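REQUEST FORM: STRUCTURE PREDICTION
Request ID: SP-0412
Submitted by: Lab K.M.
Chain count: 1
Length (residues): 73
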Amino acid sequence: MKMKDRIPDSSVVIEKNGKAPFDFFLTCNISDKKDQSDAQLFFDADLNPMMKMMASKPLTNFLNLLAAKLKEI
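STATUS: Completed
RESULT:
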């Protein structure tokens, strides 16, 4: 993965890099609230139906892991 775009304190966009089997974008939108921040993760992938069926659970687990790590920061 590589960073495609970054707006400080607002958003980060990550895209495919290397041997990933499909094109994707991972976007993290960040909103600042006085003493805390909220973050939303969006995953946009170009998957055929068969690949979607196989990749859905691992991708969901990956995004849940990222969300859990963001809470720790």
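NOTES: The chain is about 35% helix and 40% strand.
Reviewed by: T.R.
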